[in-house]
Amino acid sequence: GVVLLLAAIGGYIWWQQRQEVEAGERAEALTAAFEQIEAGNAKEAGPKLDAIAQEGGPGYRAAALLTKADIALQQGNRQAAIAAFGQVAADQEMAEPYRQLALIRQTTVEFDRLAPAEVIRRLQPLAQAGNPWFGSAGELVALAYLKQKQPQRAGPIFAAIAKDESLPASLRSRAVQM
After folding, report:
1. Angstrom distances, CA of residue 31 to CA of 52, 57, 132, 153
2. How far apart are CA 121 and CA 145, in angstroms?
3. Three-state SS for 77?
4. Where does residue 40 fall: left (phi above 0), alpha (psi -120 to 50 degrees), or beta otherwise?
5. How many Å apart are CA 127 and CA 93, to the nearest integer?
6. Is the dihedral of CA 27, 32, 38, 41 positive or negative?
7. Which residue from 20, 69, 142, 169 puts its CA 20 to 30 A from 47's CA?
């Protein structure tokens, strides 16, 4: 029994150490990809980001896909960006903050092509005062209400954004202007 217990403990320690090594390797690969992007070599970073997106855990996968979406936007490829943001937003294995960020970014990129009702449907749960995404989601929902010619629904959202001292001054200023 003691031998089996020691073997189990040893196996667990080995497994835990192996997980740490793999996480370190993913972190190094992601850092290398970020350095290549910063140096202006986004094309060379692409395969590294693809590998991280396929092999990494949910956090690394989210970082890789969000980065690929940002690169696609910088290169003018809106469809690829929308697809990457949508992939993150739909992936139930990823932490909710990543999915929510991706949904907001996807909606922002698609905003001009979406029906206002779709923007509202997507972001209404995030456009609540006190929600960490309130500023970004609230602004998009309020703009969608304006597109629907419903200023009476947009006004209170803009007012709440303008009053929220935790939001960036630029966002509060836009809300005041609206």
Report:
1. 11, 15, 27, 44
2. 11
3. coil
4. left
5. 23
6. negative
7. 20
Burial 151-170 (b: 16+ CB within 10 A, else e): eeebeebbebbbebeebeee
pTM over 0.85: no
Q: How many residues are given for the chain?
A: 178
Per residue in 46-96, pLDDT tens? 888 888 888 877 788 888 899 999 999 988 999 999 999 999 999 998 899
Q: Which two tokens stand for residue 71?
A: 């690169």
Q: How many Cβ atoms are within 10 Å of 148's Cβ, its own excluded? A: 15
- Say if residue 25's pLDDT is above 80: no
Query: Picking from 24-28, 79-83, 84-88, 97-101, which range would have the lowest pLDDT averaged per residue?
Result: 24-28
User: Which one, of 91, 84, 85, lies nearest residue 104 by Cα?
Assistant: 85
Query: Can you tell me whether residue 159 is helix, strand or coil?
Result: helix
